[in-house]
Amino acid sequence: MIITKKALPRRTFLRGLQATLALPLLDAMIPAATALAKTAAKPVPRLGYVFIPMGCHHEKWIPEGQGVLGQLSPSLSP
Questions:
Q1: Could you identify which of 12, 21, 23, 76 might form a hypothetical disulfide with 72, taking C-beta atoms 3.0 to 4.6 angstroms apart as the criterion?
Q2: What is the distance between the alpha carbons of residues 5 and 55, in angstroms, rounded to a whole number?
Q3: Are 73 and 64 in contact (CB under 8 A)?
Q4: Are 71 and 63 in contact (CB under 8 A)?
Q5: How far is CA 43 from the centre of its chain?
Q6: Would you list the DSSP string of the chain?
Q7: Residue 62 and residue 46: Cα distance in Å, rounded?
Q8: Is residue 60 within 8 Å of residue 74, measured between CB atoms?
């Protein structure tokens, strides 16, 4: 622990104390029975991008075989 002789101004201390005391009140301001809480959870649509700066071999990015995933190539396998 480094001990310095730099004093903390009273006003700075009071601002920090005020913020610390106000934080629990922020959670209490949100009503528990909001319209969002009453709705059923739906899956959120998501989108992902893959950036490959030097390009890739496109035939290795398409699964071979039948089914949703078929036979995964070495590039796609985990």
A1: 76
A2: 58
A3: yes
A4: yes
A5: 16
A6: -----PPPPHHHHHHHHHHHHHHHHHHHTS-TT-HHHHSPP-PPP-------TT---GGGGS-BSSSSS-BPPTTT--
A7: 21
A8: yes
Ramachandran angles phi, psi of 43, nearest 5° = -65, 140
Q: How far apart are CA 66 and CA 63, in angstroms?
A: 9
Q: Which two tokens stand for residue 40?
A: 């059923």
CB 63 within 8 A of CB 69: yes
Taking the C-alpha atoms of residue 15 and residue 11, their distance in angstroms, rounded to an integer, is 6
pTM over 0.90: no
- Taking only the tens place, the pLDDT of each residue in 24-76 is 777 666 666 666 666 677 778 889 888 888 777 777 777 787 777 778 887 77
